[in-house]
Amino acid sequence: xxxxxxxxxxxxxxxxxxxxxxxxxxxxxxxxxxxxxxxxxxxxxxxxxxxxxxxxxxxxxxxxxxxxxxxxxxxxxxxxxxxxxxxxxxxxxxxxxxxxxxxxxxxxxxxxxxxxxxxxxxxxxxxxxxxxxxxxxxxxxxxxxxxxxxxxxxxxxxxxxxxxxxxxxxxxxxxxxxxxxxxxxxxxxxxxxxxxxxxxxxxxxxxxxxxxxxxxxxxxxxxxxxxxxxxxxxxxxxxxxxxxxxxxxxxxxxxxxxxxxxxxxxxx
Length: 268
What we know:
The protein has helices spanning 2-14, 24-49, 57-66, 68-84, 87-101, 105-128, 139-157, 162-182, 187-199, 204-214, 224-229, 237-241, 246-267. It is an all-alpha fold. α3 (57-66) packs across α4 (68-84), α5 (87-101) packs across α9 and α9 packs antiparallel against α10.
């Protein structure tokens, strides 16, 4: 009996029975679901029901005050976008994990850039109701900029000395400034989180804690820190057996933008 209890205790120490384990595939599914809610809040409720792109802020506020139904729809739009904020830390984390484990950085960034270009028109249609709108770019451009930032950080990561840490800080600041110039979606939080997750990659607890602190302004985003803590470092069965499936996740971004834009067009 004593030996049996000892064996069971050893097994529990190696793999706690109640611990939630999240693979890379599970995190991607979680992030995509959250992103869908955000787009639905913006495209369907804000641009579709409220027609925010066709009115000035003053006109929209007056309409909300005059119509309780519109006020309710506005609350739903806000709530869905809060849910969508859960995706920000997840995709910043996955961007870093992809950078650390990619077999070809060149292929990785070219893939992200290709889907950024493909997604731009669907993004402009869903978010602004226009075929071309240069007031903001889709989040895939932000991810491409993030990869360039990570490449720069890696150049100094293994070197010792304050001057190299200062150089890394300058790279992060420059990347954030470029994101502001290019108006990439979620540029500031994504780049800051990616920098945190990369620079603290050897300190799991600290990287999650600091990441939660950085994402506090986005209200619900720190909740995703729990799921990042549960990440087991595995790609997941789907991506292990079918590596090409990663392109399906990329394609989901422009696809869901087009679908929700069509929903808005049908409503109109």
